[in-house]
Amino acid sequence: MSDTIIIEGGRVIDPASGTDATRVVVLKDGKVAGVVERADRPSGATVVDAKGRWVTPGFLDLHVHLREPGQEYKETVATGARAAVAGGFTSVVCMPNTKPVNDTLAVTELILARAAAAGLARVYPCGAISKGSAGEELAEYGELQAGGCVALSDDGKPVMSPGLMRSALEYARAFGLPLTVHEEDLHLVGKGVMHEGAASTRLGLKGIPGQAEDVMVLRDVALAELTGGRLHIAHLSTAGSVRAVREAKKRGLKVTAEVTPHHLTLSDEDVARSGYSTDFKMSPPLRSVEDVKAVVEALADGTIDCIATDHAPHSLVEKQLEFDVALNGIVGLETAFPVCLALVKKGLLTEKRLIEALTASPARAFGLPGGTLAVGAPADLAILDPGAIWTFGPKTSFSKCFNSPWRGRALTGRCTHAYVGGRLVHQAGEGA
Amino acid sequence: MIGRQKHCIALEDYSREEITQVLDLAVSMKEVLRRPIKKVPSLRGRSIVNLFFEASTRTRSSFEIAAKVLSADSLNWTSSGSSVSKGETLIDTVKNLEAMHPDVLVIRHSASGAPGLVASRVGCSVVSAGDGAHEHPSQGLLDAFTVREKLGTLDGKILTIVGDVSHSRVARSDIYSFGKLGAKVRLCGPPTMMPMGVEKMGCTVEHDLKKAVDGADAVIMLRIQHERIGAPLLSTTREYSRLWGLNTKKAAEWLKPGALVLHPGPINRGVELMPEVADGPASVILDQVENGVAVRMAILYLLAGEPVEGKA
Fold first, then answer.
1. B11-135+292-311: which CATH topology?
2. What was the ipTM of the complex prediction?
3. What percent of chain B has pLDDT above 70?
4. CA angle (B196, B222, B193) in 5-degree steps
5. Quick check: B134 contacting A, CB < 8 Å?
6. Distance from CA of A209 to the nearest CA of B (A)
7. Is the pTM above the cut of 0.90?
């Protein structure tokens, strides 16, 4: 088996280097060896025809839930990593709300060992901000970082104490780690299960105002200014948060943000249209049409840095329930590209910005390798067929779960090949 | 079937014609109910399961009597708590009941949307007896029936609903039934009890009770639940009663002559309604209870009374 792979005929979109042209990509010894107009075919090289398709850096997802350890019936590191590469994601950052919480070296090491054994996407653990994510005491950031954690989060829960949040931002500076935060004021959330507005009123479901997020983003931007810490807003969902982040960036604070494919494309009215479908229940909830418009604009203009899926597998046991009691979250790794590609077709996002928000921008936000096809970069790459029409569901899903608003829906755009370190880790058509 | 409806879950989905179909049939049902021998064979051999996941006396009794007068066999299944705490899911419970071949499942549940979830999983008709803060369609229909019976029509009438609309499934069903029959609907209560965007359901909001009932043809006083008192929705019962309760003096001075007073029950006497008003000439509260049986007979008949050969 040769170490040289030649990918020919594809449209190479690499926003990091400003490339958008038909080029040949040469991968050698696990690294990008060149992006050139013409390349020889050394004997023994593997040649891949990418005609009619896009060749991009492998996507990076800063926000996934792989559920291992503790909830392997929903997902394992291996199945999650398999779903990731099927969606074009060659790197994922996995949230620490496992059982037990990833607040110690032992859990971090277990995740990395499972990821190495799977040998699919690169898996970067995210450590807990507080011990047990209980919001009371700081976890051991030095040890977590030494073990391989690239960021800190109590995701699933906000850090309600402003005092603890201040300490966390300050303490994390010693390690240069970003804090990726789930922003919701629990007092304003109350028993809410969907966005508060005309749709929640009609449905008789308890509402969560968008301001429950806004006030926390505003608080943490202020604390980022106080401490000089790196703040990353996870799954940003409101127009108010967009304003706060835009203002923070204008003032030069170290604030970045991500948005999910579902918050970019669905609103609270879709919850109503779905007839209480729990595949539309997640945290933060699907927001108003005005919020959707604001986050799309913010992604397009760079206020929001990147797209992250918040891939959150749940079994049918946890979803085939009354809306009030079903768990929050939907899977997203395998549907992110086609769902976001629809925004390009509507003229709301350029192709370049879409790919950038999936590659160079997330790599930059957390300082991760990859996200570029520069010579010498890891040979992490996706080949995408923007015209492929397929249906997401149990038959096509590599994840253990398919709790998704797009289950059974025809989608346009699909990852056909994914390479990690020059190894082919996904090829469309292989049975799920 | 009620028009094109196989279920009675949300009046939001009902047309004016479908609502009228139920009310028209309820007129005959009320006549049956008033006979010395209150029994007709219309639903003989049909079975109805009343599945109540939330405590209810009057609604369950009303459905039960409605089924009995129509000669249907009815079974009451009471279950407390959410499916999660009970250990069996809602879907499992109803699949078990469905295996006993009911023709209609009447369900009350604390979770909004639960009857719809059930309807998506069973073959029989589903009637909601109230779900969370979503809808209480039979109450919406009986309230419309009561007003129509007393005033002749709802077209052009002004109907004011007073109370905690946020948590009220009665209010939502009333807004749809009243509105679809041509009435103008006003809502009144403290801003903490008016849910966001409720105007988009086709009503206006007025926080001042005097203005809200001015010129109204009927006033629907909602029950104030004690657990809502105190933070965060209300200060005190005393203040609520003073500002949004209806007493004899306000009823006499603010209501137009002949205006009706409705209440879905059970009444918190002395809070939203003073006894003199509840028992006074404007009150049609006990008519509502009687009409409730007639309307539920109509619903059950229309959903379960189709020819047997059509269902075989």
1. Rossmann fold (3.40.50)
2. 0.93
3. 94
4. 25
5. yes
6. 10
7. yes
